[in-house]
Amino acid sequence: MTTSRRIVLALCGLLGLGGVWFLAVGSEQVWTWYAGSADQDGVDNLGTERRRTPTDSLACSPATCSARVDIALPDYREPPAVLMQRLDRIVLADRRNLLRVDDRSRPDYRRYVARTPVLRFPDTIESLAAPRGSGSALVIYGRSLVGENDWGVNHARLALWAAELEDAKVGETAPSL
After folding, report:
1. pLDDT averaged over consecutive 10-residue blocks of the chain (177 residues)?
2. N or C: which end of the chain has fewer CB within 10 A?
3. Which overall architecture, per CATH, does domain 37-168 show?
């Protein structure tokens, strides 16, 4: 066997052992060792600053955020606490991949940790509902813990949540039960 084949086989063996270790230890534990807690804590002044790397996404109601907005949200007809309960129902329907991690002391605020289904990459998503007239304005900010690019995962997640909140926007009638 040539030296180059031995090197290739050794590298393949090391990669295989690394994969077995990754699976045995668990991806969530590996990401914690590598990058710290999946919960990145809260952002001061939500909606005013963004990351420099493309690992985040911001969704805001009109005139709510001063940072660049990726997804324009409407104003909602429900008061903040009710809107946030609706968001909980949408978000926490995926209990395997999403977990609420804030201390639950504020009815107008939520923080979640989301994980990708296969490799379990962690993202932190914060949301804040503010009173606007008889309804609410909403800010949702998602950011990745690991990597230099999230390949649009946070944007896609926030766009899905925004679509699911669509029936609560101002000007729409409530669905009949």
Report:
1. 80 69 62 70 87 92 96 96 95 89 96 88 94 96 89 93 85 50
2. C
3. 2-Layer Sandwich (3.30)
